[in-house]
Amino acid sequence: MADVYYLISDLHIGGDEQLQQVDFLDELLGFLRELEENDEDAELIINGDAFGLWEFTEFEGPEKFDALLDRYPDLFDQLEATGREIPITLIPGNHDYELAAYPAYVERLAEYNVTLEQEVSIERRVGDSLVHVEHGMQEDPNNRIPDFGNPYANPPGYFVNRQITSRAGKLSDRGKYNWLKDIQAVTPMTEIPDWLVSNYFYREMSPWLRYSVVPFLLLFNAGVLYVAMFALDWFDVWSLPLTLVEEVFSFFGSAGRLVELVFVGNLVIILLLLAISIPFSVFVWDARKTLRRFGLVRSPAEREPVEKYYDRARDVFASEPEVAVYVYGHTHRPAVTEVDNRLVVNTGTWLKRLNRVDPPLGVLPPVYYSTYQLNYFRLSATDDGDVLVEYDVIEKSDPDEETLLQRLLTRSPRRQRNPPDRTVVNRTIEGSSQLNESTVTE
Asked: Is residue 135 situated within a structural domain?
């Protein structure tokens, strides 16, 4: 057993065509090089989804490993070099589940000093406690492996990635912007429809059409109010509001008439929408019910997805009292959370992160701002035998991909609060723990 454990996950390296681009390759090589040069008794644990094997459609089984070697020779050379100095352990996630199904992967990775554990979870002793590590796909109904180790036991998520994500990688460079490949960074999966609409509107729609409809969409909410005032006047209920608005428009001359024209256009659109809303709402209701059945839309009554992992952590804590830290990945959201006086750690992702921002006015599509958060966790024992969990981020500039219109319509999202730099889990009583030295965040 090592004295120090470094944990990363969800690199998603590999896939068809545009998906083979790895934006963080230089940073990953630098991180591995630093581990190679550090004078520590350390182990690197890659907690699932190191590779995007599901996203390969032109190769089958271990042939995909040859494709990885061919595309990323520098990465495997550095893994081999780092692995000569410290152990590197890899467990399968859902996107690289095939690693659990073919013994050949164990031998091939061993050639580059990487130990593949074909298990759902592994544990490591740190001080007086155990750390439980698993990818987390078994708590996700769309990606749960029904018969772990069986190469044909693929969950629904496999077919989504095979048919949609892989296809996106092949088609991405046909767009006006090379954006479709980022579909693998969209989480949760229920965000995909809104993300597609957003990119069509802001990137692919003909400019003349986009800028023609922006005033109507931007003033749509005000247009609804104008419709209400028009209806009050039409039915002789209250004419004063519409009269005042028309006087304001006339006061501003041509500019006022132009705004009034937009409102009249919105009036026509809203009346048409009202005419078709009842039959259309029936179809929407039925479609949402179907999508919810397939897990593509979450109902308001459902709990937040993260709660499933807290329940899983509680089960692990109850069955193994020595476990003080439960580690998972999969959701791409780095976090350190207190659960029953112990720690639940999410190892995040090195993929691009998409932060949704809704325009404050009108009914315009949301904007997804791209950021990077190349993070890792370092676990070690204190002098008292407690578990020290440290969090660090490798700096990488954000891609700055947003269009001028996207920036004009929204404010840049606030930086999400990082997990604490330092958290200590004290095992004070047999079977229980307490936390010190940090404010634990979700």
From this structure: yes
Residue 312: phi, psi to the nearest 5?
-65, -40
Residue 300, domain member (yes or no): no
Judgement on whether residues 181 and 227 belong to the same structural domain of the protein: no
Give the structural domain span for 244: 219-293
If asked whether residues 417 and 283 sit together in one domain, one would say no
Residue 314 exposed, middle or buried by CB count within 10 Å (0-12, 13-18, 19+):
middle
User: Do 187 and 231 reside in the same domain of the chain?
Assistant: no
Would you say the pTM of this structure is higher than 0.85? Answer: no
Walk along the chain (442 residues) and give the pLDDT tens digit of each residue. 899 999 999 999 999 888 889 999 999 999 999 999 998 999 999 999 999 999 998 888 899 999 999 999 999 999 999 999 999 999 999 999 999 999 999 999 999 999 999 999 999 999 999 999 999 999 998 899 999 999 999 998 898 888 888 888 888 888 888 899 998 888 877 788 899 999 999 999 999 999 888 877 777 766 677 777 777 888 888 888 878 878 887 888 888 777 777 777 766 776 676 677 677 777 767 777 776 666 555 554 454 578 999 999 999 999 999 999 999 999 999 999 999 999 999 999 999 999 999 998 878 899 999 999 999 999 999 999 999 999 999 999 999 899 999 999 998 887 777 899 999 997 654 445 555 555 444 4
Distances (CA, A) of 233 to 19, 221, 227, 424: 57, 19, 10, 67
Q: Is 60 found in the same domain as 37?
A: yes
Residue 348 falls within a domain, yes or no? Answer: yes
**How many CA within 13 A on the CB side of residue 345?**
33
In a domain, 323, yes or no: yes
Say how many domains are in the chain: 2
